[in-house]
Amino acid sequence: MDAVVEGSRLEPIHQLSLSGGGFRAAFFHLGALHALAAQGRLRELKLLVTISGGSIAAGFFLQEWMHALKQRCTVDDAELARCALRAQQTLFRKTRHNPRLRVMASVRALSCGLVRNEFGFSLAMARINRRWLAALHRATSKEAWPAVLPEWRIACSDYANGSRCVVVVGHRGLPFQPDAKYLSMQDLPVAKAMASSSAVPGVFEPIRCGPYHLGDGGVLDNHGLRELDPAIGTAVCIDASAPVLPMNPVDGWATPMRAMDLMMEQTRGDVLRMRNCTLISLRDPVAQPSGLDWWSHLRALRTDLDDFAATEAHLLFLAGYQSTTGQPEIPLDCPHDNMLALWETMSRAAPAEATPELQLQLADSREACLDDLERGQHVLFSGLQKRSPASVAVTLTSLIMVALTVLLLLLLAKIAWAWGIALFPRSLRNMSANGLLGLLWVGGAAWLWQFYTPRQGAMFNNMRQWFGVLAGPIVLPALVLLSITLRLKVIAFSTRDLTAWARTALTQYQRRRAGG
Questions:
Q1: Are 221 and 51 in contact (CB under 8 A)?
Q2: CB burial class (10 A; 0-12, 13-18, 19+) of residue 430?
Q3: Least enclosed by CB within 10 Å: which of 8, 39, 409, 461?
Q4: Any residues with CB less than 8 A from the CB of 471 and at least 6 apart, and which?
């Protein structure tokens, strides 16, 4: 391992940092936290530093920890390990609703783009965080941070001044670093702090907090190592980043994110050379008795905030656990049979006494999981990127379903208009179509002005806002239609789940046909 100080694996940890990396990092971190808690290494934890996906993992883990404290006065190591497992299950259920797509389906967020130079995706993500972590939000807003919990520092990047900005939860009097600015919960609620920490540039806008414009903390320090202080005690960093892989082809759309990956990789090397800490990394695979190389697929997974399949979420959790223990072990205290079955399939060797039919089923299952992981490298149209008869059929079917949904919504809108016009006052019903459209335009313009136009700014921005206010109502119906379509897609089906189902059905059909 690079820049790692090797020590006892059972040495208590006093300060811990969780790197960025979207949901890929979050699931990996929760597996590592499960192992660290089971080893009793989190008993003396004083400082927890998180960035981006690490902040998401910490939020769910700390909320489960707080819930366990309400049930009992003290939380032992076994219960704390179960908190990490419950956090993983909760986060997995939440990701099944594709948070990124839900954020991009927000009418409020899309409307911001009509009158501003940015959409409101980060604020929409903050609203989702507040619903997901309601108990954590209440505790931090009331400053009711339990004494046994560590000080939590959520790292962001201030785009206005080019410096690190850290939101502190439950300050314990630990020393601050001179190269960062510090905010409290009174300055920025925890839901917004988490959204800022994971606001990937180019997609999510920075969140404003006074003079600060807070965005992805990984831009300046993706591992949080600059917050660690040798005077506090033993330091450990859980690193869910992956080495920069060759990129082919390189096109104009991908170069901004590619440039950011290269910059963060350089920053990682510089910081690790300066700091002494133990590193638990996704980059260091643990050899599996099964002989399968699924670690390389995990390292190539997308760092996104969309729906993660069970194969991805559960194997990332297992990878975090095994990286911490250094052994190809499986957590035996997991109460979920599906997780255990997946772990045993991908990690353990095939039983020697298995029948040929069972060996064939095991081979099919492993191939399906590896295909799912390889498909998970792609953000959009993964079924066409990693092609199979099932994935192509499901992807095309989902596109057809979206088109049919749009047509159905247009039909329903026409029926609703014909029915709803009768409820209008007679004076409105007697107005001409142009008069009604003008009235709706005035209402839409007033709505955009009231909720989405900043009251100050340069003349150019003010002109841009006026243009958006005047022209925006024409686009609003299309935005509403887009929002409803995306939300129905999120609720109705998951393309990844349909692909797995279709592949299983095709495999069974081919078997029956071969057997017949």
A1: yes
A2: exposed
A3: 8
A4: 114
C-alpha closest to that of 376 among 466, 455, 456, 313: 313
Residue 14 Cα to chain centre, angstroms: 26
Phi, psi of 196 (to 5 degrees): -65, -45
Q: Is the peptide bond before 473 cis (omega within 30 degrees of 0)?
A: no
How do the pLDDT tens digits run along the chain, 516 residues long?
Answer: 343 334 445 789 999 999 998 999 999 999 999 999 999 999 999 999 999 999 999 999 999 999 999 988 788 999 999 999 999 999 999 988 889 888 988 888 888 888 887 888 999 999 999 999 999 998 888 778 888 999 999 999 999 999 999 999 999 999 999 999 999 988 999 999 999 999 988 789 999 998 999 999 988 888 999 999 999 999 999 999 877 666 665 555 556 666 666 666 666 665 566 567 888 999 989 999 988 899 998 988 888 888 888 899 999 999 999 999 999 999 877 777 788 888 988 998 888 777 888 888 888 888 888 888 887 776 565 555 666 665 666 667 767 777 777 787 778 777 876 776 667 677 766 777 777 778 888 888 888 887 777 766 666 667 778 888 888 888 888 888 888 877 776 665 565 565 565 556 555 655 555 555
